[in-house]
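MOLECULE: protein
FOLLOWS: sequence and fold
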Amino acid sequence: MTCANTFRQAEGREAEPSAGIVDSQSLRAAETMGAASRGYDAGKKVQGRKRSSARGVDTRFHAARAATIPS
């Protein structure tokens, strides 16, 4: 059980949120980073990595993921 789930239960709510918000960001990567760990986001014209996060509608953090943007 995550910390966010514990807080939800302490407030008298279900542990798992019934709705959530998923967001992603393209992050610029330094030239010193290996090419295998970088990709290109053509929509934003950014070379780097993509970071995704999931939050409940109460804005508590639930999960995160970082990935290389496919070239």
